[in-house]
Amino acid sequence: MEKAQQFIVESCLGTSCHLLGAEDLLAVIQHLPQEIKNKIDLQAVTCLQHCGKGPNIRINGEIMMNMTPERLLQVIQQNIAQIESCSKEE
Asked: pLDDT tens digits for 35-84?
């Protein structure tokens, strides 16, 4: 899969984010269908510098604080829709 057809999801695995539910966010991604996981470049980071507002995720450079599994699924769906609309335009 080409990198242009993927979006970057960086999950903070620092202590605060871990205690605030970062594992739940990773579980959401791990349970996605493979065709969706192929569109995600999942990366672990140590800290996104917003420890009191975790768990935190950075998607394509945008930090999203107080992330929930439900909200993460919505953001993933939005990013996939954007990728698919861009590939149709090409």
From this structure: 999 999 999 999 999 999 999 999 999 999 999 999 999 999 999 998 88
Contacts of 29 (CB under 8 A, 6+ apart): 9, 11, 37, 40, 42, 72, 76
Q: Please tell me the CATH superfamily of domain 3-89, with its number.
A: Glutaredoxin (3.40.30.10)
Report helix, strand or coil for 9. Answer: strand
Domain borders along the chain are 3-89
DSSP string, 15-67: HHHHHHTHHHHHHHHHTS-HHHHTTEEEEEES--S-GGG-S-EEETTEEE-S-
Cα gap 63→50, rounded to integer Å: 9
